[in-house]
Amino acid sequence: MRSFVLVILCAVSTIICCHSQVNTRPGSAMSQVANDFLQSLSSNQLSMTQFKFDEDERYNWHYIPKNRKGITLKELSGTQREAVMNMLHTALSDTAFQKTTAIMQLENILRTVEGRPANDDYRDPDNYHVSVFGNPSDPIWGWRFEGHHISFNFSSKDNRLVSTTPNFLGANPAVVLSGPEKGKEVLKDETELGYALLRSLDEKQKQKAVINVAAPAEIITGADRKAIITDAHGVSYNELNSGQQKVFVQLLSLYIHRYTRLFAMDMMKDIESAGINNLLFSWAGDQQIGIGHPHYYRIKGPTIIIEYDNTQNNANHVHTVVRDLKDDFGGDELLEHYERNH
């Protein structure tokens, strides 16, 4: 089973997730770029950007438009902004980085659709915040990149990236309906692969997989400090045939390979160690995709929860989240290690 899954993951990562740093650990490069970034800030900018690693602010994450701590991209110079995006790219696959920047640009479309003025801050592709927790020169530190429909929370230990979650990516509109970018669909893969897995199921499998005829109005884990879903319903990996298992792993890999290949493989090893047969796929809502058909799915296992929800704005508004049940925010063990050494 292990070799089968790793072969599939390698194949998928080659197709969708090539990254210029697949053969190196991202933590060291990220620390170097982060140090350069912090050194470029004025004292006022630094006070807005840097926090202690053990401050509660590190857990104050969300994916809605709101007032946030941390410096915004629009408060940075071109060089400083480039450093932030380089930090982000050291931890993400090329595909995920491209999706992230595309989601930021959807704010321009929302600004037009909602009839907001050109200088509106509520819908603004530069209204994304950067917060650094601790010192990138220290063994333990972290940082967050966050704004509307984006939240990446990174934790590093000994120049090694140990956590990238909570990770949220959303898209509104899910499909751009008019204008120069009509038809653009940033999270198309997440939509179509989830539906492909549902469509592959026979009726007996669907009876287990479909947990509700109505989709929840939002991802169930929300922006909680700890991700908890007690419902254990769904169709398990070992109840699928080999073809269905391949699609399942492709869907799982799509989310895990939002990060560099080496980190994704580490994450997959944790999933395998906990038992890939313990993974459940669940669906709720309409059993077809497209505008006007609210739907939801998730993958849930001992170490991970992945949720996809498309219900808002007449089912043209996607939310996706990845939660590591052991290592969200680096995990309790990392925080304890930090506090012991400080």
Low-pLDDT sequence parts: 1-5, 11-24
| Content of β-strand | 15-25%
What is the subunit organization of this protein?
single chain
**Main β sheet profile:** 13 strands, mixed
Number of domains: 1
Shape descriptor reads: globular
Distance between the termini: 43 Å
Structural class: alpha+beta
Radius of gyration: 20 Å
Number of helices: 11
Mean pLDDT, nearest integer?
A: 92
Helix content: 25-40%
Q: State the order of secondary-structure elements, H for helix, E for strand.
A: HHHEEHHEEEEEHHEEHHEEEHEH
Total beta strand runs: 13
Question: What is the compact description of this entry?
Answer:
With 342 residues, the chain is an alpha+beta fold.
Task: Give the helix/strand layout.
Elements: H1 2-16, H2 26-40, H3 43-49, E1 50-51, E2 71-72, H4 78-91, H5 94-113, E3 129-133, E4 140-147, E5 150-157, E6 160-163, E7 167-171, H6 188-200, H7 203-209, E8 210-212, E9 235-236, H8 242-256, H9 261-274, E10 280-285, E11 295-300, E12 304-310, H10 312-315, E13 318-324, H11 331-340
Parallel strand pairs: 1-3, 8-10
Antiparallel strand pairs: 2-3, 3-4, 4-5, 5-6, 5-7, 7-13, 9-10, 10-11, 11-12, 12-13
